[in-house]
Amino acid sequence: MIPELSNPSVCMKDPQRVKDILQSMVKAGSNTLQVISDFDMTLTRFSHNGKRCPTCHNILDNSKVISEDCKQQLDHLLKTYYPIEIDSTRSVEEKLPLMVEWWTKAHDLLVEQKIQKNLLAEAVSESEVMLREGFQLFFDHLHEHSIPLLIFSAGIGDILEEVIRQAGVFHSNVNVFSNYMDFDESGVLRAFKGDLIHIYNKREGALLNTGHFQELRTRPNVLLMGDSLGDLSMADGVQDMENILKIGFLNDKVEERKQAYLDSYDIVLIKDETLEVPNAVLLHLTGNK
Question: Which reaction equations make up its catalytic activity (predicted)?
Answer without folding.
Answer: a ribonucleoside 5'-phosphate + H2O = a ribonucleoside + phosphate; N(7)-methyl-GMP + H2O = N(7)-methylguanosine + phosphate; CMP + H2O = cytidine + phosphate
